[in-house]
Amino acid sequence: MTIGALNLYNYLVMELNGYEPSNPRPHLDAIFAALADPTRRAILARLAAGEASVAQLAEPFAMSQPAISKHLKVLERAGLISRGRDAQRRPRRLESKPLAEATGWLEGYRQLWEQSFHRLDAVLDNLKTQEQRQELRLRKSPESPQEKEKKHGIDE
């Protein structure tokens, strides 16, 4: 694939994913930035089991509650979690819509790569078939090894 074709390919991918220069999906940037940290991913995994308070979320980590609160703020800004209200408690819960958005974005790329691999498989199968046919022709031909080498450029 040439650079021009690669740029066109990238443009098509961006268009496929709804990218517009005036709407570069800053929300998606916030989602992936939040998911880049292992502590935040662990918090999301914990919240997948159900709502939890800051103290409950901080238990498995060797860090202070204020440090956990900073991670929670990042997750809230990305829309990955929300804060509820239960008397004195403010439990956090997982929000599925941003994860679905990120998954949808990744799925578009997965499909493009899968299509590319299928095209590559077809090319390799075609080359293999051509090679097998050429070998069969060489076996059937009554030419001497020197004639074969001269005609087909084969080193023996």
What does this structure look like?
The chain has seven helices and two strands. With 156 residues, it is mostly helical. The chain has a two-stranded antiparallel ribbon with strand order 1-2. A hairpin with an 8-residue loop joins strand 1 (81-83) and strand 2. It is elongated. The two termini are 34 Å apart. The mean pLDDT is 85.
Strand and helix layout:
Layout: H1 3-16, H2 26-35, H3 38-48, H4 54-58, H5 65-77, E1 81-83, E2 92-94, H6 96-140, H7 145-152
Antiparallel strand pairs: 1-2
Distance between the termini: 34 Å
In spatial order, strands of the major sheet run 1-2
Number of separate helices: 7
> Low-confidence runs (pLDDT<50, min 5 residues)?
none
Number of strands: 2
Percent helix: 55-70%
The radius of gyration over CA amounts to 28 Å
**Most strands sheet:** 2 strands, antiparallel
Structural class: mainly alpha
Whole-number mean pLDDT: 85
Envelope shape? elongated
Please state the oligomeric state of the protein chains shown. Answer: single chain
Provide the β-strand percentage band.
under 5%
Order of helices and strands: HHHHHEEHH
Keywords:
156 residues; two-stranded antiparallel ribbon
Could you give a quick summary of the protein structure above?
This protein has 156 residues and is mainly alpha-helical.
